[in-house]
Amino acid sequence: YAYITSLAYILPQVTTVFLGAASALANGTVVSRVGTAAVAATANAFNIPVVVCCETYKFSHRVQLDAITHNELGDPDALCEVKNRPDVNDLRNWNDLQNLRLLNLRYDAVQDKYITMIATEVGMIPASSVPVILREYNTGPSLL
Question: What is the pTM (predicted TM-score) of this model?
């Protein structure tokens, strides 16, 4: 575990990155908590394998190309606070600034090119095999 700001410093010591997922989509994109795409892309730049842990009940027929078109929004005021640092308050009156809008996204969309494997209860699969698993589940009784 490390802070996202220390990724470039810590990744040379890492052998594999394990990520959780809220959903795996039919085009191989993985939806997870905000910041996950940055971790996966940075690990890819360092040639470190990225393994996403995702149960097959989280697989979806939906397709998503970015994290903007379909996402949950958090409280924008949460971006203005730094825990244990009351002296950091540059955005305390952000509502008064006419040209400033804060956007607090909850999820990231990680492209399949950054994912080495998806670990599921049926085994390790490449991100491109998500539609295969979906098809198997929809054809009735199977070995899954």
Answer: 0.79
For each of the chain's 144 residues, which pLDDT tens digit applies?
Answer: 778 889 989 999 999 999 999 999 999 999 999 899 999 999 999 999 999 999 999 998 887 776 666 777 788 877 787 788 878 777 778 888 888 888 787 888 999 999 999 999 999 999 999 988 888 877 655 545
Structure tokens at 111: 């492209």
Distances from the Cα of 89 to the Cα of 57, 68, 80, 81, angstroms = 42, 27, 7, 7
Q: What whole-number distance in Å separates Cα of residue 144 and Cα of residue 124?
A: 13
Helix and strand totals (H; E) in the chain = 3, 8
Cα–Cα distance between 124 and 57 in angstroms, integer? Answer: 15
Query: In whole angstroms, what is the distance from residue 93 CA to residue 100 CA?
Result: 10
Any bridge partners for residue 119, and if so which?
A: 53, 124
